Amino acid sequence: MGMLDTIQSGREAKPPRIMIYGSEGVGKSTFAASAPGTIFIQTEDGLGEIDCSKFPLAHSLADVFSGLAALRDEPHDFQCVAVDSVDWLERLIFDEVCREFGARSIEKADGGYGRGYVHALTHWRKAVSLLNELRDRRGMMTILVAHAKVERFEDPENAAYDRYTPRLHKAATSLLCEWVDAVLFATKRFRVSKEEGSGFQGDRAIATAIGANGGERILRTVGSPACIAKNRFNLPGEIPLSWPAFMEAYAAGSAAPAQGGEANV
Q1: Do the Cβ atoms of 177 and 124 come closer than 8 Å?
Q2: 173 C-beta neighbours (distance < 10 Å), count
Q3: Would you say the C-alpha torsion 249, 236, 164, 175 has a positive or negative sign?
Q4: Residue 199 within any structural domain of the chain
Q5: How high is the mean pLDDT of the chain?
Q6: Backbone φ, ψ for residue 210 (5° rounding)
Q7: What CATH number should be reported for the domain holding residue 100?
Q8: What is the largest CA-CA distance in the chain?
Q9: Is residue 103 part of a domain?
């Protein structure tokens, strides 16, 4: 058989790999828990109020890898693995690198000059490899949960601007965002109203902007100057923050003709 005989064509149906990130309390973990058959690898203590299946809180990188290996090797009926959160997983990775090199901080590992972050990528790749095995061998979906940060982006074609990104080192962000099929930014759409007569400028009454309490919770699925996001599922640019809404959009996108490519992160 020649190489040309191995060529494949058409779409390949595999469990999706998703990263969802946003501010604290917006509903990221609830979104992950709403997926069918979810089991959490918890690296931070934040699931106490959510009815879900979870491993004990991981205190080391070895705990995380042991949980993933158990899901790969032992019988179970779970359909989705959620890592909550990957930014706290990164802390465990940094601790492991510091232990390996006898350093007190990731900045000093292996003599400094950013070498610690390079070594951290080795552990990230092992985590991704285990998640790939769960996907390929056990048919499990992956949801990575992360917090958000505001980061300055130096755009080579335009003026620099701030945008939301996952709260990870840039090398880890690049690796994970490339690996997953969708990067979803969870946020709230705030509506601003105006209150007439709330003050005076000379003899003229002025209006004061009032931020609405709460706000509709949404997922942004396409990158913009405001946030990192992408998807390979033909999703609309914005959908409600709920698992049923995501699955409805996912099913519609899968049935639609394939687009020319994914949105940029």
Answers
A1: no
A2: 24
A3: positive
A4: yes
A5: 88
A6: -125, 120
A7: 3.40.50
A8: 88
A9: yes
In this structure, the strands spanning 182-189 and 192-201 are unpaired
Angstrom distance (rounded) from CA 263 to CA 180: 13
Q: Residue 119 is encoded by which pair of tokens?
A: 């070594």
The contacts of residue 209 (CB under 8 Å, 6+ apart) are 192, 193, 194
Check residue 155 and give its pLDDT.
Answer: 79
Label residues 116-142 b or e (16+ Cβ within 10 Å = b). bbebbbebbeebbebbebbbeeeebbb
Angle formed at CA 137 by CA 131 and CA 139, multiple of 5 degrees: 80
Q: Is residue 5 part of a domain?
A: no
* Domain, as residue range, for 195: 15-255
Q: What's this model's pTM, rounded to 2 decimal places?
A: 0.86
Q: Are 64 and 123 in contact (CB under 8 A)?
A: no
Concatenated DSSP letters of 66-82: HHHHHHHHS-----EEE
A 10 A CB-CB count for 21 gives 30
CA dist., res. 207 & res. 41, Å (int): 49
**Cis preceding linkage at 85, omega within 30:** yes
**Tokens of residue 89, six digits:** 């997983």
Average pLDDT over residues 16-20: 97
Model confidence over 89-121: pLDDT tens digits? 999 999 999 999 999 999 999 898 889 999 999
Would you place residue 3 in the very low, low, confident or very high pLDDT band (cuts 50, 70, 90)?
confident
Sheet strands (E) in the chain: 17-22, 38-42, 53-54, 80-84, 141-153, 161-166, 182-189, 192-201, 204-211, 216-220, 230-231, 238-240
